Amino acid sequence: MMGLPLAFTEPLLLIGLVSLPVLWWLLRVMPPRPRRIEFPPTRLLFDIAPREETPSRTPWWLTALRLLAAALVIFAAAGPIWNPQTGAADSKAPLMIMLDDGWSAASHWDVRIRAADELIANAENDRRAIALVPLSEPNRDITLMPAGAARVALRQLAPKPYSIDRVETLAAVDRFLKATGDCEIAWLSDGVDTGRGEDFVAGLGKTIGDRSLIVFEGGTSSPLALVAAENAAAKMTVKVLRTDSGIAMGTVRALDQKASPIGEARYTFGPQDKETDAAFDLPVELRNDITRLEISGERSAGAVQLLDKRWRRRAIGIVSGATSETAQPLLAPTFYLTRALAPFADVRLADKGSPQQGITQFLDQKLPMIILADVGTIAPELRERLNAWVDQGGVLARFAGPRLAQAEDDLVPVKLRKGGRTLGGSLTWEKPQHLATFAADGPFAGVAVPKDVTVSRQVLAEPDAVLATKSWASLEDGTPLVTGEHRGKGLVSLFHVSADMRWSDLPMSGTFVEMLRRVVDMSGYTSKPGPGVASEATIETVAPLHILDGFGAFGPPPASAKPLPADYRDRATSDHPPGFYGPAEGPLAVNTLASADRIAALNTASLRARHATYTNAEPRDLRGWLLSTALALFLIDAIIVAVLGGGIAALLRRRAAPAMIVLGLLFASLSPAPSRADSAADDFAMKATSQTRLAYVVTGNADVDSIVRAGMSGLTLFLAQRTALEAGDPVGIDPARDELAFFPLIYWPIVPGAPKPPQDAINKIDAYMKQGGTVLFDTRDAIEAPPGANGAAQTPGMQTLREILSSLDVPELEPVPREHVLTKTFYLLRDFPGRFVTGQTWVETLPRDEDEDSAQRPARGGDGVSPIIITSNDLAGAWAVRPDGQAMLPVTGGDTRQREFAYRAGANIVMYTLTGNYKADQVHAPALIERLGQ
């Protein structure tokens, strides 16, 4: 109706609106307002009204109010429906529903499914058969089915996480239409052209001929997509794409491998912008942890950009063997290498000193890639370290020069001849050589070969049977320019020319930058050799690991997903859906759209079809709203008539006091009363947040609660005396009622046989632990454990604890290891005694390092604080003190300092929950001390 999503079930009743002028004439008159006349008999005869009286006129605004109420009643009687169902034309022919089900349809998938369901319902009412055609499945047989089967098939469809090619479905549609004859067609389009859209529209018009076609498009916002993420030197940027116009803005979120948020970036579209940038201004260390970018509020695989190690800005160390850097820095090899690597890597130059010291410096820093520019002889012990570093995954790139040409070194991929080969000199007939086409199976495949780059000198490789398989780039005469070899998990490559302009003008070309970029990209996949590396003739493939569905959520790989080459850089397809491929420690990211892809609006104007829009809401009957509004207007009219007629004034004069009382009670009942529960919650929050406080769970056992309260108070006093923490008085809490997020540590004494807390309390504890809090469970029964290896698990307190933990998402636990951060957060401890010393303390299991140096590290920590600590040593009993400062309970150990160690254990636990695993970083203490001393 007039462009609005409004329809009427009984539109003929709207003719009643014609009677409104008659109502206007009738409603203009109202009875005269009564007057108050005094009763003196003398004046009674003079004030008698005549037989005929001119009636009073109704105010125009009151008449308009009555007409509006009458119009609302007429509209309600006509049965108005907002967002009416849009069906196909009335026909008895079969109905074919073509459905766009690519990634661009996912953001409003429920709207399209609702529209298809309405079409199926209308066809069912007309007893028509239905054919369902998802445009992502060109090989699917198109068959007619009853409405019930079509509805089941519709519910089984899901958007695909890749771009679909609609043109491939035209052949199947043509065969179906020829076999069926007359048919009505409905196309539920997503309005996005991801490629060959014009060809499909033209082909569809020819295929359907004169048949009826309705195209559903519009009515929903444009789908958004992410492409071309780039981790530049200062920030990470990603392009946001759309197909419509108008001012719009939103947020792109950055997540790490554990789906934890790292940062957000705003983007804004101008009135005519089809793409814009979102920039993350974060430190490079945080940007390197980003594995997923997604548009907030957009549910589609196209709105997700997955990042792997190729997007990380790797730290690369450069060591030069030349001695002219200081005298002529702009001619030094480090100058060209730094300029070429700066756009995609963080370059670190070795400090002044010998090359051996520079290599040692970078090995100590555990850089993933080191470049040696004309470094000749390397000490044997340092060569062994380099070999071990390469075997563990390091990438070593070397450049030739006078020193390397004279050295004997096995840290090169091929055996070299001593000396060098000079081209184009005065004593040689040979001319400088140009570059040949890069090997198709090498890492430089696809890189454009510059015609203006020449090589005047190089180091030659000894010919052997595998030289060709190790050659990544060659000169026109067949001699190698770049060679590479896979060793262990790492890679060794050699540029047979120098990194400056002395031997070639390659460092001045853009090809040099792209070649280095390819080598750096390979450093993210050193666990896999890749094509052209080592002597393998076959192309290595990686299997799917985690795959995105059409809505952008991770799931297991479908059966149709196939392995892909380890150097795959293209967009996702049906055989290779978007997601992560390869090993979990170094997966390959495949995205829905490639970096150069763009999206556009699909133009269907050339089709001879009816057009309909999607509706974002269910049909809604407006009769109830209109009748309710009309009734309210009639009530307002009655009140106005009473006021104008003096009825209310007379009532107030006769019943002033009762009326005031009634009005006062009415307003009192409507005014909100302050909630005691809200006031108590506010008081609790103010008390808990005014100071850092420790908390304990109130068990309901008076003896246990008094001991625990005294113990937590004793620990708080100890912390104030020995540390910089001046905590407030401990707070007793009820997990089912109180807010837990205010407290860094909650002490929970286990009472044997106590009833299990309600599920709401368990859920709050679980959420508290997930959000960074720590709960210390103490069964207080270490002395009651029966003898035997499993005796501690058989006590009544432990059985009660098991029942509580059965409903919690508890991580894998282990006894506190010797090198755990908890043993050295404030005091150096070996165990955690309380009143008892025989019980073990359990924490979340930390991942073990597999390198040999892990055993020598002073501390080991995970990514966060353990959310759960379990002990049976009755810590609070050892901490508990009376008002006079004396201990409330005795300790059972033979060590006279046991209570002191119990306090120290409590201090370590509190400091651990407050400061986390920063003590684990003491492994870098020597380097920090050395840095401070410089």
Helicity range of the residues?
25-40%
Give the overall pLDDT as a whole number: 82
Count of helical segments?
Answer: 24
Can you summarize the main beta sheet? Answer: 7 strands, mixed
Class inferred from helices and paired strands:
alpha/beta
Strand order of the largest sheet: 18-17-19-20-27-26-25
Q: What's the overall geometry?
A: flat
Question: What is the gyration radius calculated from CA atoms?
Answer: 40 Å
The stretches of 5 or more residues where confidence is low (pLDDT under 50) are 525-538, 850-863
- N-to-C terminal Cα separation, in Å? 80 Å
Subunit organisation of the chains: single chain
Number of strands: 43
Strand content: 15-25%
Explain what the structure shows.
The chain has about 950 residues and is α/β, with parallel strands linked by helices. The chain contains 24 helices and 43 strands. A 7-stranded mixed β-sheet has the order 18-17-19-20-27-26-25, sandwiched between helices. A 5-stranded parallel β-sheet has the order 6-5-7-9-35, covered by helices on one side. Strands 38-37-39-40-43 form a 5-stranded parallel β-sheet, with helices on both faces.
Q: Which features does this protein show?
A:
934 residues, alpha/beta, 7-stranded mixed beta sheet, 24 helices, flat
Q: How would you summarize the topology of this molecule?
A:
Elements lengths: L5 E3 L11 H8 L1 E2 L10 H4 L11 E2 L2 H18 L2 E3 L12 E5 L9 H17 L4 E5 L12 H9 L14 H11 L3 E5 L3 E2 L3 H12 L4 E4 L8 E7 L4 E6 L6 E8 L5 E9 L5 E6 L3 H4 L4 E4 L8 E3 L7 E7 L12 H9 L3 E5 L5 H11 L3 E5 L6 H12 L3 E5 L2 H5 L14 E2 L10 E2 L19 E2 L1 E2 L8 H4 E4 L5 E8 L2 E6 L14 H13 L18 E2 L1 E5 L5 E2 L8 E2 L13 E3 L6 E3 L9 E2 L8 E3 L7 E2 L1 H22 L2 H8 L1 H15 L5 H15 L4 E3 L4 H21 L8 E3 L11 E5 L9 H12 L3 E5 L17 H10 L7 E3 L26 E3 L23 E4 L3 H5 L18 H18 L9 H9 L1
Parallel strand pairs: 5-6, 5-7, 7-9, 9-35, 17-18, 17-19, 19-20, 20-27, 37-38, 37-39, 39-40, 40-43
Antiparallel strand pairs: 1-4, 2-3, 4-36, 8-34, 10-11, 11-14, 12-13, 12-15, 15-16, 21-24, 22-23, 25-26, 26-27, 28-31, 29-30, 29-32, 32-33, 41-42
Helix pairs in contact: 1-3, 3-15, 4-5, 6-7, 10-11
